[in-house]
What we know:
The chain has four helices and eight strands. It is an alpha+beta fold. It has one domain: ph1033 like domains (ph1033 like fold). It has a six-stranded mixed β-sheet with strand order 2-7-4-3-1-8. A hairpin with a 6-residue loop joins strand 3 and strand 4. It is globular, with a radius of gyration of 16 Å.
Amino acid sequence: MSPKKRARHYWxxxxxxxxxxxxxxxxxxxxxxMWDGVRNYQARNMMRDExxxxxxxxxxxxxxxxxxxxxxxxxxxxxxxxxSAFDPDDAHFDPKSDPEKPRWxxxxxxxxxxxxxxxxxxxxxxxxxxxxxxxxxxxxxxSVQPVSERExxxxxxxxxxxxxxxx
DNA sequence: GCCAACGTTGGC
DNA sequence: GCCAACGTTGGC
Length: 167
């Protein structure tokens, strides 16, 4: 029996454009960035246990005017130790993360392409086909969220996106 | 194990 | 700047 190939999974990842906009990811010299500094167990668990190379990412601008999805990215590594947790000078330093038993994990992501226009949070809320999508739920704070294949397709449709959907 | 206090997120 | 909705911490 040949092993069944895992279906592609989809995610939404938030970033504050004042700190790290989608354009910064696009202009990374290495073509990718370490998605480090996440200090939330649910988000960590998804990065550690569920994300696989090739998974699709909706790159979301939070704390923005307006907030919304800016473009597409892709997971390019599986989860590995977040070294920033050990650095006392890092904003996300965690004295409880022991290098012998690291607590925090991150993945690397690369940009696929920006949308021509931001798909605003309001536009997502206004689309009845996206009822139940996590990012539009009141109080939704998780910086890494699963996205269904249907939601992924619908967002691309809203964006009028005709480009490639994976690297 | 409960839960109040506190800190953070993030839309508005 | 406000505040609702969380997640975490720590006393008990």
